[in-house]
């Protein structure tokens, strides 16, 4: 079957302008051929199976360097999961429709979907303007794409304007996984909508996975996507680097983004301008992943839920809003819960707002090396819990006892020591008879030669001062 291709005014094949980089710039190349699935016997009435026509179209397109298989408006039924292995050499395949819910690919049986095996650095795939439906509760992987070449696919693959949903549209049927990408680098997933099971406990929206090094999955970009009632919106497995998630919505699922347990060689996760309204954890970090940035996101937190949870990695959590749902803090609701600190990790948590929560920031056993500054806590029962001396906490509105003074009771004539907590503190010494003030401890140097009171001493986090007196003074501390 010949491809469908309009001719230009001179009777030849049309050309398209393609940007080939700064060296070549814009060049004109022949437009890839378009293969209409109906020309191969594809039926748009959801009656005759489309497996045969699909394989026939792939056989035809394999004779060239690629092209586009197009599904006009209609519903196309598949009974199996066809798998297409790319031919050698440069090859690009586009699978397109006329729009979401206009061109529908549907599977009534289990283990449905389309699968593609890429094996060349110049292999790409483009899936656009389609809806994938299943009639099963856990219908398999709707779109499975794998690559067997290290760092391949940098010419760029994409999945754009596609919906994955149960055929009943009532959230009783769903895909086990909407998109499964293995070692596929340079993948852009844009404006894709994924629907799971009504209870929000089943299914995965996007699974990103590398294999044994050096077959990593590099720089996937997930932009403007919607995850509705999906058990896990985005699951990040082993050997993944450079994930960007931007302007996405995670609604009524269990977990928004999860770095799976047991992962290795994980680095670089950037999540920005997204909204999380899930039943459990918005972002769940179960493996060490270096260089994480979470900024400008909105987390709605239910009872027993957490905005960001997991290992304390090298990361910044800046400019987010963590809000409990309801007029009072939901039970056991936590904005950020940090677990064991990974080797060499330091976390900066700053300029966030925590509103109507049971706990704002919780340090679990082993959490250390956290710099918490310039956050605001509003109607939060416990703003910061389980603080250790290795954490640094400064200038957080609503954190008790920030900007509040407390008296310190010391024994009669003696030398007493005082050690500041994880925040900077100011000691005000009033009255009594003071003979020596030394920092960092009683064996240290007397840096205050003038012991006249009143006296102000500034202490950094964890710093110790000793004061010797014959008549006990009044000491007041202020935590900053």
Total beta strand runs: 45
For the report, how would you describe the main beta sheet? 36 strands, parallel
Named CATH topology of the largest domain = Pectate Lyase C-like
Low-confidence stretches: 4-13
Radius of gyration (Å) = 30 Å
CATH homologous group name of the largest domain: Single-stranded right-handed beta-helix, Pectin lyase-like
What percent strand? Answer: over 45%
Structural category: mainly beta
Helix content bin: under 10%
What's the number of structural domains?
A: 2
Q: How would you describe the shape?
A: elongated
Alpha carbon gap, first and last residue: 76 Å
CATH architecture descriptor name of the largest domain = 3 Solenoid
* The level-1 CATH class of the largest domain: Mainly Beta
User: What is the mean predicted local confidence, pLDDT?
Assistant: 86
Instruction: Please tally the helical runs, counting DSSP H or I stretches of 4 or more residues.
Output: 1
Structure characteristics:
elongated, 2% helix, 36-stranded parallel β-sheet, 4-stranded antiparallel β-sheet, Pectate Lyase C-like, mainly beta, 480 residues, Jelly Rolls, 2 domains
């Amino acid at each position: 079957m010949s491809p469908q291709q309009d001719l230009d005014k001179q009777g030849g094949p049309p050309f398209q302008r393609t940007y080939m980089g700064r060296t070549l710039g814009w060049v004109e190349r022949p437009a890839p051929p378009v293969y209409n699935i109906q020309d191969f016997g594809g039926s748009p009435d959801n009656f005759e199976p489309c497996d045969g026509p699909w394989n026939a179209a792939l056989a035809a397109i394999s004779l060239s360097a690629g092209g586009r298989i197009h599904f006009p408006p209609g519903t196309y039924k598949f009974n199996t999961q066809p798998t297409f292995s790319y031919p050698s050499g440069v090859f690009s395949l586009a699978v397109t429709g006329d729009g979401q819910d206009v061109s529908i690919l549907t599977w009534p049986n289990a283990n449905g979907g389309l699968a593609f095996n890429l094996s060349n650095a110049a292999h790409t795939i483009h899936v656009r303007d389609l809806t994938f439906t299943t009639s099963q509760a856990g219908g398999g992987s709707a779109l499975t794409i794998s690559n067997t070449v290290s760092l391949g696919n940098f010419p760029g693959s994409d999945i754009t304007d596609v919906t994955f949903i149960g055929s009943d549209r009532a959230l009783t049927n769903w895909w086990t996984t909407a998109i499964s990408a293995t070692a596929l680098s340079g993948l852009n997933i844009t404006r894709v909508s994924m629907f799971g099971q009504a209870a929000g406990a089943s299914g995965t929206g996007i699974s990103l996975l590398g294999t044994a090094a050096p077959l990593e999955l590099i720089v996937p970009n997930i932009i403007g996507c919607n995850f509705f009632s999906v058990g896990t919106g985005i699951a990040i497995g082993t050997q993944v680097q450079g994930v960007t998630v931007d302007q996405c919505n995670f609604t009524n699922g269990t977990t928004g983004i999860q770095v799976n347990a047991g992962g290795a060689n994980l680095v670089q996760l950037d999540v920005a301008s997204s909204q999380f309204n899930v039943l459990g954890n918005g972002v769940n970090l179960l493996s060490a992943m270096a260089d994480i940035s979470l900024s400008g996101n909105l987390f709605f937190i239910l009872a027993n839920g957490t905005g960001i949870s997991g290992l304390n990695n090298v990361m910044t959590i800046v400019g987010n809003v963590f809000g409990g749902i309801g007029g009072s803090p939901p039970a056991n609701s936590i904005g950020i819960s940090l677990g064991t600190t990974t080797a060499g990790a330091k976390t900066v948590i700053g300029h966030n707002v925590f509103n109507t929560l049971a706990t704002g920031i919780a340090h679990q056993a082993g959490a250390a090396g956290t710099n918490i500054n310039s956050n605001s806590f509003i109607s939060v029962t416990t703003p910061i819990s389980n603080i250790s001396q290795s954490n640094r906490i400064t200038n957080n509105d609503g954190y008790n006892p920030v900007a509040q003074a407390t008296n310190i009771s010391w024994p009669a004539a003696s030398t007493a020591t005082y050690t500041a907590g994880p925040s900077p503190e100011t000691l005000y010494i009033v009255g009594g008879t003071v003979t020596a003030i030394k920092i960092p401890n009683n064996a240290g140097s007397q840096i205050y030669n003038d012991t006249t009171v009143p006296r102000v001493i500034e202490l950094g986090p964890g710093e110790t001062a000793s004061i010797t007196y014959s008549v006990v003074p009044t000491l007041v501390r202020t935590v900053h």
